Amino acid sequence: MRLLTAGLITAALAGCSDSDSSSGSSSTATESFSGKVADGYLAGARVCLDLNDNQTCDDGEPSTVSSSGGAFTIEGATAEQLASAALVVEIIVGETVDEDNPGTAIDKTYTLTAPAGYAFVSPLTTMVHNEAKEKGLSAEQAKAAVQVRLGTEADLEEDYVAGKGDGGEDASEFERLHKVAQVTRAVMQENIETVNQVLANTDAEFEDVLSLIVGQVLEALDDINNAVDNAGSDFDADTLAGSDELAGAGVNPATVEEELEEREAEREASQISIADVLTGGDSLTFFESDSYEGSDGGEGSSASYFYGSVALAEGSTSAVEVSQFIYNPLDESWFSPGGDSDTYQDCILSAGQWRCVAEDSETITISGDSVIVSRGGLSNAQETITGTSVDLSGKRIRTYAGESDYENLFDPTVLFSTGATAFRLTFTRSSDLYVMWKDNVSSVGECWDGEASTSGPWSPTDVWCNNVFVRTGDGNAATDGEAATSLSDLISATAAADPAYAEDIKGTSIYTEEGDWLVEFVSGGVANYYRYSYDGMGSLEGPVSGSWSQSTVDGVTMLIFSIPEIIAARGDLDPDERTRFYTLEDSYVREGEVVPAGADSDDQWVFNETARDDILAAFDPDLSADLAVCTSGDTENGSFSDFDSAASACSAVAFTSADVSGRALHADFGVFEFNENGTGSYLGEVDDDDYVYLNFSWQIDSNGYLIIDTSATVDGATQFMRMNLAKIEANARQISVISLGLDAASETALDSATGDVMGEVFNLR
Q1: Smallest Cα–Cα separation from 703: which of 662, 647, 631?
Q2: Which residue, 98, 196, 326, 651, is the most exposed by fewest CB within 10 angstroms?
Q3: For residue 650, how far is the Cα from the chain centroid?
Q4: pLDDT > 80? residue 2
């Protein structure tokens, strides 16, 4: 959490209008809208405008059924509906046909979506729509984010089925995207089946299920891309979807219910007055962490944990203070750190002047029903806090508490107590905020963490440590790197003609997580962006086109530009990092950012005092380290005797019913859920095949081993299966075991069957 700190539908997308120009009321005018839907082209699929944004085609929503070639036309929708409502495509099992497999009706359900105005709906546009909904992005921002993950510059609104066959320069890329879409569809189908099996008769909103499933696919896009590229001529979407290569694309059946519970809670959260929370004597607490990766990315990795509580200052009815605490692992206590020694400042434009204030110079006050955060006492640098609340009573602490580093610090069975509440906060600004940074160090040599040169090109000029360095564009690298002293230093009269190297471009650089981009500001308002590669040759990639303008804001002249969405997505830039400006201040051109007016919703939960105390009581850093795997007895085609020997070699201890009764064991291949009466259910793979759902019986034998028995029909014959588990050690989160999986044609034959003996660690739920 921070320190408390669409449009018109183009003629190409719209069909013919049904409106009557002589009508006296434009509110009743309707239009038609045409497009196509594809994995391959889908014929016989239900297509609708999702007026209530629940990702389902409901009665009364403008809808139709697609025809050959995936074509559809929706009639009777208003221009407003077409401009604002997403498209939803529902597969009708047994009727819808994917023309990649003509003549065969689809037998597994799935749903596709697209942002408002899209005339092509596919698995790829479904990811775009999900990214926009989940992260509050515009359709263009979301499209750019998905393009980056797909590693493509092809327009995801384009018909890739037609595009791969039109002989155009992007034909091969459209063919690749078609394959990615096919695999994505197959993964979505498998994930929907998994979720349905996990939930059984449990109610869950489909919009939550679809968002969860598509979000998981987005996380696995790198794997999907690689799988498609590696498949070559052996490509088969359904085979790839079920392969080990794409295991990460599947939803985790052990956590599905938790994730859906949190989504439902967030969706159904009720509006609440944050001022009332604080004036009522309660507080707001946020939990955060910092991760430190070891030298090899694994061993030596660590995390530090801290939290902050926001409450009324003692004796005040309006002033709010923030108390911060850091966890000390040496004495297992939380302590309040001393004052921050950072010198960094934010320089904020206010009343025609740059007011430089410490980064953490914030005051929080209550005024009536409003909670206001003010930066440096500046009236134009204020944010108003609003929020929603969720009753956490009886919900799992690990589902809600803190960031990802906290996930493994709680017993998964521990619940919040009565009265525990979580909040989601929204911060609203009434005007754009123009901010420059100033390191404010004691000497130039301390700039850039002490790594800056103190003379020559590319060197900071003063303790601001904020200069804009100029490339002259004369082809001579030796003339580059001087600090700009006027905005005209950055502007080129004409665009560079086929530049090969950085020194061929007049402009400056911006920096992102992906790397450096050179920006050429051409007279007239065009900005050309070139990706600069440090490959020994200084080669360029691009250009990506954008725009710039010179404006006067509150009496200050600025060169203002917005970084193109594809670059922002590739560089993982937040929304308030995308609009930049340059301006002359203190003799040199400085760089800053425009924080736009409007509302920012924080995606982290904050907690009332009851929930905070529950979290602190359950906090257990000892759970963060995974249990060790004992492999000393691992063997292939081992017998029960080999299993018994391995258990002895690893100093196995006896299972008790309390270890598993009413709990679930989560292995890489599936999830075992244990009932108290010696029965249970398994959801997972059998013989590396698709997920199956099986009932089983369990017992603890005289050796203290856990024995799980089940059977399944495989290729028309009954297959009997047994899992033998020996317990090595356990904590509240995990259990280390020796396992022996057996299968045979009869139950009695299991006693003499062989299988792989191996050490494993299962997660407990």
Answers
A1: 647
A2: 651
A3: 40
A4: no
